[in-house]
Automatic annotation (TrEMBL), chains A, B:
This protein's name: Acetyl-CoA hydrolase/transferase family protein
Keyword Transmembrane: no
One MF term in the entry's GO annotations: hydrolase activity
Taxonomic source organism: Stenotrophomonas mori
One Pfam family it belongs to: AcetylCoA_hydro
Length: 504, 504
């Protein structure tokens, strides 16, 4: 028998089915849900809502919602609602294939903003009233306090601002997660803001549970379901090479006295390359490391377990089934080393700058001068979104962008004359790494940046082409500060669209 | 008789001529000078240095320096050294015509970074050792403390880090400036950083003078010269229209309860449009305003004098001769209302976000989706630099970008299909204003942003062309999230280069 997770009798009385709860959401509502990189999202109500939307559509009735979350969720949420054509507007980050297709077909409005901006923009009133919040928790305490599950995201803001609240209590989530969270209740609107009293990445500055006015809670739904499975893919050779270049650079910076021996708090994106970096760090000999990041994935659990990483601060998880089992099995160990925060704190510019985070993020492409495109394929087709990369790139101690030098079987160069979309400007990008090598752009003027990127990062198949463009641009460009030949600057992208390859 | 400004006898003994002081600077040195928007820069040593460089060049000897400042300076500094071909590398912001020409001819390496990043990047070691600092002050106290003059910029950092220091004591600067400065000595490198204890824009958190190890001061030079003259140009009709749209919007936000009645601290760029905004604010009926900005120009003095503005925090001045006389005449009044800070504090992301600044900056162009180019004409030719615009655009409560809708006698549209260079991404730009109107891009997905920019901001001569591009892009673009036609995206810029007009 599972132990009762709903200890507040008032709220236990409000337990209903997912269908009943979903029926409380009306067409046209702005609905704010929990969820960050596939963890801690509601498991039942969105699917029930999607069915109700489909039924409405079958009867010729319009039914769409505006959907806000922490970040990406899962097929049961973004996927189900997108397939049902139930989303009119989506904010702030998603990675669902069905939603992505609708966005790029022009059927779904998507607003891609810095994750550190989301909560404050909603508080500013830019998204109107939040009608309903749908929040997964791991338990409800006797006093009604809500114990978050495996992500925090914007849940505090959603609970504070929503007119009505639906809670999913998921007893698949480990009860031992209670105590891992740190919910900061000191945010405010200007001019009432105060310094955030966090000086080390593992400081606790808040409470272990979320508050919510019980009168707003209109339904409680019991669920028992896993977070999105993130199957672990073995680390490939390219990712290992990229990781090797980055770690050698970090060790070199330590040797030069420009970084402490235990580095500075790491921020790491999600995926194969970040996992390779984490695996490389495990073998690097570095010790006493820390993470102040958004998401904890498999490699970070391993670093905690092996004692290489002292602690990790995050707002969500992205674990493989095996890593999730390990997490549950040793939850007491991890609870002492992991602090889960709201995403306005995990990504806060004040804290990222103060702590001096080392940002490590993926990219789609960079140009010669270090402008980085993180979001748009060929300038118009969005992949996922900017997420928190900008929060760390702008304000951290180091902003590194990592990518294989080519994509799509070598037909696309990740180094292009001019990027087709800019998410991180030349002013915010310090290190570019591909499997070919690492370009340290810090303290370099534009033409020297180009030289470094071409020489160290470009794939040999594209290096001469880039060099040729750059040489001719240096000769013929209108200005020689950031040389460009405008008729050619985006021609590689168009060539790929026309011929399937950026190669001439 | 002027009153002695050098009260420390040790330093009075080190008074030498500008020529003698300049001779202490060797070829190849990294030289860090005071100066921000033409205020508080050294008046004599750079000219003497330029002459020595010219003499060396006449004798066939190479002589160049790497030059760091706060921001732009004046003909006696950037101009003289650029004309002498004495600058190998320049950082972080300049606006001198001679230097600009050399930069765009590819003769002078220029590194354009966020003003809030300058001090920390030098502390990080990205620019090597600072060999010599050349700093203008208004006085030296008995204990050797240095009273800044009309800008602070990076002077604290330069004095802390330079191997040797040359001080210019300029008795043209008002003695009454003593007490106006607030030099914060609480910065540190991560992981030693702490919260910056500033919660209101006029809080004092530091000292009124700069510290400097007297053993490092190798020369003191007496000067008597004015800051760069910024002649006041009467406000033109276009600027007045732009200001009118912006102020009406701010009042509308107050009426909707989204801004306090006294707004939030204003940040204002320099020039005719910002002056028009300030003049408009004077007549707006708004009261109790404040400024947390980089530069105080004429209009802001007037707002202080009329009592519309309670206080202004800055790091430098840009005054016309008349306004400067007013400033000197009523220095006691202004000293109670103006706080001058280091530029790492005036532009600090932590503070800009906490205070919720309203950023108001110029731009060269924006594209349909709100990506802003602040620096590069036709994508390759730098105008001035990004300055502090990014510090405020990213972290403030509002980021507004202001520009006439056309330039160069109507041949250039400030609204283009795709910007030729990006300094502020779509994620960081909330409001676009031209004399045609205002586009509020907050909370809008890309295609709705395009609609707003075309309809509200584009000049009638270009509106149909933009609309045509956008419609065709929505139909034919690879992705429909941010529709673009890559072969045409930069064609307007190339057409201007080819024909002298963006019009077909």
């Amino acid at each position: 028998m599972s132990v009762e997770r709903i200890l507040d009798a008032r709220l236990r009385d409000r337990v209903v089915s997912a269908e009943h709860a979903a029926a409380l959401i009306q067409p046209g509502e702005t609905v704010a849900m929990s969820g960050f990189t596939g963890s801690g999202y509601p498991k039942a109500v969105p699917m029930a809502l999607a069915r109700q939307i489909e039924q409405a559509h079958q009867q010729g009735q319009p039914f769409q919602i505006k959907l806000l979350t922490g970040a990406s969720t899962a097929p049961e949420l973004d996927g189900a609602l997108a397939k049902a054509d139930g989303i009119a507007m989506r904010m702030p980050f998603q990675s669902d294939p069905d939603a992505r297709k609708r966005i790029n077909d022009g059927m779904l409005d998507y607003i891609d903003i810095h994750l550190s901006h989301v909560a404050q923009h909603v508080w500013f009133g830019l998204y109107g009233q939040i009608d309903t919040a749908v929040i997964e928790v791991s338990a409800i305490r006797e006093d009604g306090a809500l114990v978050p599950s495996t992500s925090v995201g914007n849940n505090k803001t959603w609970l504070d601002l929503a007119r009505k609240v639906i809670i999913e209590v998921n007893d698949w989530q480990p009860a031992g997660v209670d105590g891992m969270h740190d919910i900061y209740y000191g945010t405010a609107l200007p001019p009432q803001r105060r310094p955030i009293p966090l000086v080390q990445g593992n400081d606790r500055i808040g409470e272990t549970a979320l508050r919510c006015d019980p009168d707003k809670i209109v339904a409680v739904v019991r669920t028992h379901g896993p977070d999105r499975n993130s199957p672990f893919t073995p680390i490939d050779a390219t990712s290992e090479q990229i990781a090797g270049h980055l770690i050698a650079f970090l060790q070199h910076e330590v040797a030069r006295g420009r970084l402490p021996a235990n580095l500075l708090p790491l921020q790491s994106g999600v995926g194969n390359i970040p996992n390779a970096v984490l695996a490389g760090l495990a073998k690097s000999g570095l010790r006493g490391l820390s993470a102040f990041t958004e998401v904890i994935q498999d490699g970070m659990l391993e670093l905690l377990k092996s004692g290489v990483l002292d602690y990790a601060s995050c707002t969500g998880f992205a674990l493989s089934p095996d890593a999730n089992e390990e997490f549950k099995r040793n939850i007491d160990f991890y609870r002492r080393r992991i602090i889960m925060r709201t995403q306005e704190i995990s990504n806060h510019p004040e804290l990222v700058r103060r702590l001096g985070c080392i940002g490590m993020n993926g990219m789609i492409e960079t140009d010669l001068y270090g402008n980085v495109n993180s979001t748009h394929v060929m300038g118009s087709r969005i992949m996922n979104g900017i997420g928190g990369s900008g929060d760390f790139a702008r304000n951290g101690f180091l902003s590194t962008f990592l990518s294989p030098s080519t994509a799509k079987n070598g037909t696309i160069s990740s180094i292009v004359p001019m990027v087709s979309h800019v998410d991180h400007t030349e002013h915010d990008v310090s290190i570019i790494v591909t499997e070919q090598g690492l370009a340290d752009l810090r303290g370099l003027p534009p033409r020297a940046r180009a030289r470094a990127v071409i020489d160290h990062c470009a794939h040999p198949d594209f290096r001469d082409l880039l060099d040729d463009y750059f040489q001719r641009a240096c000769r013929d460009s209108y200005g020689k500060h950031t040389p460009h030949l405008l008729p050619e600057a985006l021609s590689w992208h168009q060539r790929w669209l026309d011929t399937g390859s950026m190669k001439p």
